[in-house]
Amino acid sequence: MTTTASPPATTRRRRSGDTERGMSRVFRWISTAAAVLLLAVLAAVAVFLVQRGLPALTASGEELQTAGRLPRGMTHLGQLVGPLVFGTLLAAAIALLLATPVAVGIALFISHYAPRRLAAGIGYVVDLLAAIPSVVFGLWGGRTLAPVVADVWVWVAGVLNSIPGLEVRATATGRSLATASVVLAVMILPIITAVSREVFLQTPKLHEEAALALGATRWEVVRTAVLPFGRSGVISAAMLGLGRALGETMAVLMILSPGLLYSFQIFDSGQQQTIAAYIANQFPESSGLAVNVLIATGLALFVITMAVNMLARWIVARRKEFSGAN
Amino acid sequence: MAQRIDVKDLNIYYGDFMAVQGVSMTIDPKSVTAFIGPSGCGKSTFLRTLNRMHEVIPGAHVEGKVEMEGVDLYGPDVDPVAVRRSIGMVFQRPNPFPTMSIRDNVLAGVKLNNKRISRSDADDLVESSLRGANLWNEVKDRLDKPGSGLSGGQQQRLCIARAIAVKPQVLLMDEPCSALDPISTLAIEDLIQELKQDYTIVIVTHNMQQAARVSDRTAFFNIAGTGKPGRLIEMDETATIFSTPKEKATEDYVSGRFG
């Protein structure tokens, strides 16, 4: 009795390698549940979009024109979704093009150039920018920015027009896609800046010192150590920003004078419209099949956003070998 | 190519805290000088002041003089970037740039400052630097692979190749073998013996056998207690330091009767 160590009376069978117990197991369930919840929400949205958009996809041209309230002259859904997708992508792309260099610049300034106290202040201001509601951005963009920036667009259009073969129009009201994109750029600036800053701050000291010891100036340290290290992070940040720009509704709605054309006249009014702004604009007056039409355009936005994110992940993964993760 | 360094009454501060006090020494060209001493005695800090790398830490500053061939490295019109170009450094942990290939790692220092270099010159430099670091035969077939895919010892030799590619006058090594296995350590020690034909080498090491094996002269640093500044206790021929040092503290340390 005293010498033989008897096995515990009840040994519950465990899966091999399963050593979880108590809090560890609880935490695993909580985190699993959170992940499942996320997928469930995403699936629910996808199901909703497909289910409610389907009637519009299957409806005949006549039904779409009458009950579906398609704009005059359109006989099938593609004629509406096409220009909307085009406008959405164009606005978001311009916004991204404007915002990313500025955001990376601010992030680098905060992480590597500014004195510590100034850096904290600037970081705070940038975060504050993210707290401004998009309605306010819309009001500001439509009322204050548009009239001011219109003069700039007219001038730019004038310069571009001097190039033979180019015909650029600009509206004097400033209610153009270019203005909307500038406001979108301001709106996505905080998220790109914040994520980039965090990534840049995580650059291993070892790599920065390696560059310094080779006789690198501060800019060269940034170029050889910080930017390559932060590259994938900046792309992720830009994609987060792009996601917001694609889906932004109020600001575009309140600034852009819409049209449904495949047009690169970004300084003119009545040319393009984005999906989200179109839905918000049309929804109050819609019922029946018209709602299905709007939801079908929403499905298009959903698909675009997913495609953009997958593209971004592919870009990041392509150079994984050189990422320093190995 | 190799140049001598004279240090005169050097005090090193981090903010108000004095980390190292009153160091004077001469580092001979084309020789290996080893710094030994207990942890926290300021030998790495002192090493970093030789190429102004300690300035990366905010508030770090020095009093006194560090002269290379008579030119004060802390003179008012001396650019720290230029100092680091002529005094290269190898770190405790191998740190090749992870986003660069082996070839680009070697060329990293040369390509700084937008220097143009022809393809054939670059090829020659890559080969001579990697040969100089005894790494060429191991990596010549995979120059376009990432440097981070090499073993630790190979990575460290890649870092040495990168440092000598910019043709420095002095090479500082901050415990270059402390993260390596004995075989890789031996490879680096052999390399140090070859490099001293061309370069002035200063090495910080925790390994006294290593100091005895590789160095011509040895400097022993010590610290009186926590919060006190580190000091240079004694510097002499390596053989002397390890057999008949003048100071009792040195003898205690090298014979293992420390503390």
TrEMBL record, chain A:
How does this protein sit in the membrane? Multi-pass membrane protein
Q: Does the keyword Transmembrane helix apply?
A: yes
Which keywords fit this entry according to its UniProt record? Cell membrane, Membrane, Phosphate transport, Transmembrane, Transmembrane helix, Transport
GO cellular-component term (any): plasma membrane
* Protein location: Cell membrane
Q: Where are the transmembrane segments?
A: 29-50, 84-110, 122-140, 152-170, 177-196, 250-267, 287-312
Q: Which InterPro entries match?
A: MetI-like, MetI-like_sf, Phosphate_PstC, Phosphate_Transport_Permease
- Return one GO MF term: phosphate transmembrane transporter activity
Record-annotated ABC transmembrane type-1 domain positions? 85-312
Residues spanning the signal sequence: none
Superkingdom of this protein's organism:
Bacteria
UniProt-listed SUPFAM superfamilies: MetI-like (SSF161098)
The record's Gene Ontology biological-process terms are:
phosphate ion transport
Q: Kindly indicate whether the keyword Cell membrane belongs to this entry.
A: yes
* Function recorded in the entry: Part of the binding-protein-dependent transport system for phosphate; probably responsible for the translocation of the substrate across the membrane.
Q: Which NCBIfam families match?
A: phosphate_pstC
Q: Which family does it belong to?
A: Belongs to the binding-protein-dependent transport system permease family. CysTW subfamily.
Supply the name of the protein: Phosphate transport system permease protein
Q: Which organism does this record belong to? A: Xylanimonas oleitrophica
UniProtKB/TrEMBL annotation, chain B:
Return the Pfam families for the record: ABC_tran (PF00005)
List the GO molecular function terms.
ATP binding; ATP hydrolysis activity; phosphate transmembrane transporter activity
**InterPro entries named among the record's database cross-references:** AAA+_ATPase, ABC_transporter-like_ATP-bd, ABC_transporter-like_CS, P-loop_NTPase, PstB-like
* Assigned GO CC terms: membrane
BP GO annotations: phosphate ion transmembrane transport
Write out the entry's keywords from A to Z.
Answer: ATP-binding, Nucleotide-binding, Translocase, Transport
Give start and end of each ABC transporter domain: 5-248
Cited SMART domains: AAA
Cross-referenced PROSITE patterns: ABC_TRANSPORTER_1, ABC_TRANSPORTER_2
Q: Which NCBIfam families match?
A: 3a0107s01c2
Spell out the protein name for this chain: Phosphate ABC transporter ATP-binding protein
Give the originating organism: Xylanimonas oleitrophica
